[in-house]
Amino acid sequence: MNDDTAHGAILTALADPTRRAVLDRLRDGPLPVARIAEPMPVTRPAVSQHLKVLLDAGLVSMRRQGTRNIYGLTPGGAEPLVVWLGDLTERRSDLPGLVVRLSPEDARRLFIDDVALWWPVAQLSFSAMGAGALPRSIGWRGDRLHEVMYDGSGADWARITTRTASRVALDWRLGGRTELIAGFASDPDGCRVTLDWGGAGKVSGDMQALVAERYGTAARASLSNF
């Protein structure tokens, strides 16, 4: 299923109140069909049919446990819809550079090592998109930025493809496949940071502005740490 059809399948799945109730039922963890159906005003076979729709939309996953099928939320399953909704906003490709009172080296270190301080984790992470939860952790594993999700599973946000004194390029996966290029240039007041998002608007203009604003706030807060 490609991105253009995935969000449509998710919208169709979410249109039914019973299916939304099934997803809410799974927020606390995986369950067998019988447990999911307990509080529902529909029959077990009907719940099974609703689960099939949610499976086809990628919102839930299923595993066998003995003779039972256990269903749980799919981490990041709602991501295609989140991306599509984000692209409904006006895109801005000319965001100005941000001047921070840090050296280029420290500005780059903040960008790479302390991404959890400035990225809007509560709004855009695999855990947030999958179940409205905060990740257990976010950190680097070699050149890959990795999230450990609320249920203990993991996924990569990005991979560093270029890293120099003045430029960091990331193959970005979270919120849609794109490229994020961060530039760090000396400025009389510190460092001019530019964040250039590629990928034909996979990250909305509003989200780009929010990321830049949060990075600037984190830079001001970190002055006492450098």
Model description:
- 38% of the residues lie in helices and 27% in strands.
- By secondary structure, the chain is of the alpha+beta class.
- A hairpin with a 2-residue loop joins strand 9 and strand 10.
- Helix 1 runs antiparallel to helix 4.
- The longest helix has 18 residues.
- The protein starts with a helix and ends with a helix.
- About 3% of the residues have low confidence.
Structure summary:
With 226 residues, this protein is an alpha+beta fold. The protein is 38% helix and 27% strand.
Q: Quick check: average pLDDT? A: 85
Total number of strands: 10
Helix-strand string: HHEHHEEHEHHHEEEEEEH
> How many helices?
9
What integer value in Å does the Rg equal? Answer: 20 Å
Molecular shape: elongated
Short descriptors:
7-stranded antiparallel sheet, alpha+beta, 226 residues, 27% strand, single chain
List the helices and strands and how they pair.
Blueprint: H1 3-14, H2 17-25, E1 31-32, H3 33-37, H4 44-56, E2 60-65, E3 68-73, H5 79-86, E4 98-100, H6 104-113, H7 115-118, H8 126-131, E5 137-141, E6 144-148, E7 154-163, E8 167-172, E9 178-187, E10 190-197, H9 205-222
Antiparallel strand pairs: 1-3, 2-3, 4-10, 5-6, 6-7, 7-8, 8-9, 9-10
